[in-house]
Amino acid sequence: MSRESTIFLIPFGIILISALIAHFFGIDFGVSATYFDTGWYNAIREVGYSNPQACAFFPGFPFLWSALSLSATGIAFFNLMIWLLGLFMLKRFNVVHWKSIAFAMLAPAMVFFMVPYSESLFFISTIVVVLGLQREDVRLTMIGVFLCALIRPTSAVLIPALFIGRWLADRKIFQALARTLFDGLAGLLAVGVVFFIQRLETGNWLAFFEAQKTWGNELAAPGLTLQTWGGDVITQLDGAAMFVGLMCIFVLIQVGFKKYTLNAMQLFGLAALGGTMLLVFFTRNGFVFSLNRFIFATAFFPLALDAFRHVPIQKKHWKWLILTWLVFSLYLSSYLHFKSFIVSSSTGALILFTLFSIRSKQKWAQIIGMLSLAAIAIWMIVDFYLKGNWIA
User: Fold this and answer.
1) How confident is the model at residue 392 (pLDDT cuts 50, 70, 90)?
2) Residue 20, class by beta-carbon neighbours within 10 Å (0-12 exposed, 13-18 middle, 19+ buried)?
3) Residue 382 pLDDT > 80, yes or no?
4) Is the pLDDT of residue 212 over 90?
5) Cα(116)–Cα(75) distance, rounded to whole angstroms?
6) Residues in contact with 154: Cβ distance below 8 Å, sequence separation at least 6, in sequence order
7) DSSP-derived secondary structure letter, 66
């Protein structure tokens, strides 16, 4: 096994350490079929869309779960395996550098790939899109888009992201439009299938949109401050995701003005993360709960990290990055309490040190960066099982 391949053992080490900690505290480390979104997926698996609110969730993952006839723990392990398979495909087909894979693997939101959620299935379906983009194979991107659109509503960002990736990579706008048109048709077909399934079970073609309204998701101007369901830590984590989305948009603008160049896959990752951030930001009235999972627990994230590895950052730029985070943290209400300021400062330090580590050629920086992220990932997993807190 090569040195680079050993990174795929990291999640097992994190799970083992988390399990030992849970055992020390006498906590059952099994996966519940009722925790948070798992309960909704499990309900769709068992009784379909009998509850109209469940129409906010697409059927791809719960239908696969039903077909596999696995327990909650079984489907969680299945999700872990297909997530690792997707990461392996990124390395095997030379889509991104192994460092980008390693740091993406250690993102705090990695816990979402180890529970009965749709993240892993969406992840590997997105890899199909990425491989099609790499090979300039529209048939492959169409298949990937179709699968993604059966799994998650946020797959809507794939179409503009594919167009931006193709266009900024080759500067051939009409060719990019023509290829992306076919991807859009594949996505529309999949959404039609989803709406048809929901229509059969609810009698309503627009059940998805009505369910989204009951969850508070509709087009609206953002609030004056960033808000989530949790306290300082979750607010800062979702805020970090928003900050990363803004960084992606900034880099895309720089590429648009030909300040530097990136390949189509890197551009696709940046556009998808930036688009996801904007989609959540403008449909939840300033409430950006779960944004961290939509940013960090996706295949777009390692692509974006690979892009950040190639973006030129001079020493004088780091002070501006620090200042930008401090100003941005005011939007996260970091000024309300000293504790909020400390959590905000720690989050900003983690973002910038991760950016430094993934670009550094110094082994000590890479090791410290990875260990820091691993410690946070373990804390999140244990916190979920020990206290039953919301996964984030």
Assistant:
1) very low
2) exposed
3) no
4) no
5) 6
6) 276, 279, 294
7) H
